[in-house]
Amino acid sequence: MAENQNTEFRRQIAYKCNIESLSKGVFVKKPGWESNYVMTDYGDFSRVNIIAVVVSKDENSIMLDDGSGQMIGRTFDNAEKLSNINVGDLVLLIARPREFNNEIYLTLEIIKKIEKGWIVYRKKELLLIQKVRNVDSLKKSEKAAPEMTENASSPSTVNSKERIIQVIKQLDTGSGASIDDVLMISKMSNSEDIIQDMLLKGEIFEIKSGRLKLM
Hints:
alpha+beta, Arc Repressor Mutant, subunit A, 2 domains, 5-stranded mixed barrel, 6 helices
């Protein structure tokens, strides 16, 4: 019983995501008391945390736009929830994805107006979350791959260097990857030594102080 309760609690986390990932996702309807969810490239979401601009409104619904796409948010039992929300407002909302006529929409639980600057912060936040998820997927792929034989090159050297390269690729959007972010995401005790060795060999370089780029 306790295990079921813990599983249900994890499902109720409101995950930060964007509208595009939900729109492209697959809605999965579960039987009984199990939570329905949207299966996306970045995880399965039964409850979401989104920041978006209200672009249209009627009595029980609003159209939301977060720059990645648009989606309808609806309230069925409390129209007053939208009473102080106006077109043009930037809002933070906690909601549950639902589906009608093969279209995903959001059932609003919490919605509040926030300052305009938060949408820029959220975009940066989602970018970092996506990069971390991509790196985690890479690690899972590495674990699933056949192990190297004893006669092969040292896995502690080869795999570590490959991981550093992949992390730099994921983090570099044009201005290089922060060394601190590379160290944090790679989570290897010898990351600094590997980076120094690669710098000396010219395999990577510092585009400016503290930011790495692949050759």
